[in-house]
């Protein structure tokens, strides 16, 4: 038997009968389809059409949103190994676990937000451009509806409806970078926080990294975002205390030494046990990239001062309150129970903030 005899190519009809609606030139060649045959099938009135350079739709009629997304990924992945698997169905609100491997290309921007389920993002058929994120060193140009965005630090993608999609903070930053309408930017940022898609600090860090915090309409939206995030975090803290049966504290108070200096404000305080809770809502303010470090230094200074006076300070983050409220309630309950075994704290004056 001659093992060098090439296999006969399968008839082209088998491609149309599979789920592989969109394929690249290289994938077609692997199926035994020559460049001449591809061109013949893409002639006017033919059964195939070219969607993007080197990417083909193997069915007549306009491409679906799933076809467009797959075409963008295949176009951006040319020259990488492996290329994304073709033919994955798209349902914009579904969500799946992260893939174990790092992807070299991923959907980002408004298309990614639509896939993440954002109501404020336009539906996929309405998008003239689909943004795809690739590494900075890739030699690739935007073409057709595929807009190429480069980055020196590719984030770990999430898998949404079988597609690699940028995480929400990165997708938002890429979307905001293309938007000039202040109302749209505000709606997207607000939904990100209210909908629990991400925490304000993570989003502001991405906007700062993308150098978008010098745009007035973005700055205004971020100011509202931080206030919104703070309010949501406080609501989570109230619910945690009440739903998990903790004693009612005094809320949002300033602490002072009698006749002495101001010690700082806390979000909740139990005077009898000398236990304070402070929400860690640090985020850099627009125009002040070092603000997060300064805020953290203030947190640390205040905590050290209060603990020298015998007051236990518990720091809670909005994310932990959202994802593990029962665990955070246990942390606070443990601090309250431990008060009986500590030396009495110094007397402090509690004032409304």
Structural overview:
The protein has 353 residues and is of the alpha+beta class. It folds into three domains: 14-77, no CATH class; 105-231, no CATH class; 237-352, Endonuclease, Chain A (3-Layer(aba) Sandwich). 38% of the residues lie in helices and 18% in strands. The strands form four sheets. A five-stranded mixed beta sheet has the order 12-11-10-9-13, with helices on both faces. Strand 7 (158-160) and strand 8 (163-165) form a beta hairpin. Helix 6 (168-176) runs antiparallel to helix 7, helix 6 (168-176) crosses helix 8 (200-209) and helix 9 packs across helix 12. Mean pLDDT is 82; it is low at 1-11 and 82-102.
Write the layout of secondary structure elements.
Blueprint: H1 13-16, E1 22-24, H2 25-30, H3 35-41, E2 49-52, E3 55-57, H4 65-77, E4 105-108, H5 109-115, E5 130-135, E6 146-151, E7 158-160, E8 163-165, H6 168-176, H7 182-194, H8 200-209, H9 216-243, E9 250-256, E10 262-270, E11 275-279, H10 291-308, E12 312-316, H11 318-323, H12 325-338, E13 349-352
Parallel strand pairs: 5-6, 11-12
Antiparallel strand pairs: 1-3, 2-3, 4-5, 7-8, 9-10, 9-13, 10-11
Helix pairs in contact: 5-6, 6-7, 6-8, 7-9, 9-12
Provide a quick synopsis of the model.
This protein folds into 3 domains: 14-77, no CATH class; 105-231, no CATH class; 237-352, Endonuclease, Chain A (3-Layer(aba) Sandwich), CATH 3.40.960.
Keywords:
353 residues, 13 strands, 5-stranded mixed sheet, 38% helix, Endonuclease, Chain A, alpha+beta, single chain, 3-stranded antiparallel sheet
How much of the residues is beta strand, in percent?
15-25%
Please, how many domains? 3
**Broad shape:** elongated
* Proportion in helices: 25-40%
Uncertain segments are 1-11, 82-102
Strand order of the largest sheet: 12-11-10-9-13
Protein name: DUF559 domain-containing protein
């Amino acid at each position: 038997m001659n093992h060098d005899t090439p296999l006969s190519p399968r008839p082209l009809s088998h491609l149309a009968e599979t789920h592989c609606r969109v394929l690249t030139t290289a994938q077609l060649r692997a199926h035994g389809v020559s460049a001449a045959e591809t061109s013949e099938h893409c002639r006017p009135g033919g059964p195939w059409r070219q969607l993007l350079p080197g990417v083909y739709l193997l069915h007549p009629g306009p491409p679906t949103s799933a076809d467009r997304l797959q075409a963008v990924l295949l176009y951006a992945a040319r020259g990488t190994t492996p290329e994304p698997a073709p033919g994955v169905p798209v349902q914009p609100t579904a969500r799946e676990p992260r893939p174990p491997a790092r992807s070299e290309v991923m959907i980002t921007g408004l298309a990614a937000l639509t896939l993440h389920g954002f109501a404020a993002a336009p539906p996929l058929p309405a998008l003239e451009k689909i943004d795809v994120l690739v590494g900075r060193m890739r030699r690739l140009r935007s073409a057709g509806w595929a807009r190429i965005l480069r980055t020196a630090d590719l984030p770990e993608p999430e898998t949404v409806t079988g597609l690699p999609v940028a995480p929400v903070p990165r997708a938002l930053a890429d979307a905001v970078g293309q938007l000039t309408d202040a109302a749209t930017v505000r709606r997207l940022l607000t939904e990100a926080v209210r909908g629990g898609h991400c925490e304000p600090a993570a989003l502001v860090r991405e906007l700062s990294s993308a150098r978008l915090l010098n745009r007035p309409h973005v700055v205004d939206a971020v100011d509202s975002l931080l206030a919104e995030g703070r309010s949501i975090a406080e609501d989570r803290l109230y619910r945690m205390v009440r739903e998990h049966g903790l004693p009612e504290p005094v809320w949002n108070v300033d602490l002072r030494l009698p006749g002495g200096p101001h010690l700082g404000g806390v979000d909740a305080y139990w005077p009898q046990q000398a236990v304070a809770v402070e929400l860690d809502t640090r985020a850099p303010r627009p125009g002040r990239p070092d603000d997060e470090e300064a805020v953290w230094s203030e947190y640390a200074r205040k905590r050290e001062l209060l603990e020298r006076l015998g007051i236990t300070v518990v720091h809670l983050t909005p994310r932990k309150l959202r994802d593990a409220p029962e665990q955070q309630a246990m942390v606070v309950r443990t601090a309250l129970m431990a008060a009986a075994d500590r030396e009495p704290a110094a007397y402090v004056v509690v004032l409304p903030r």
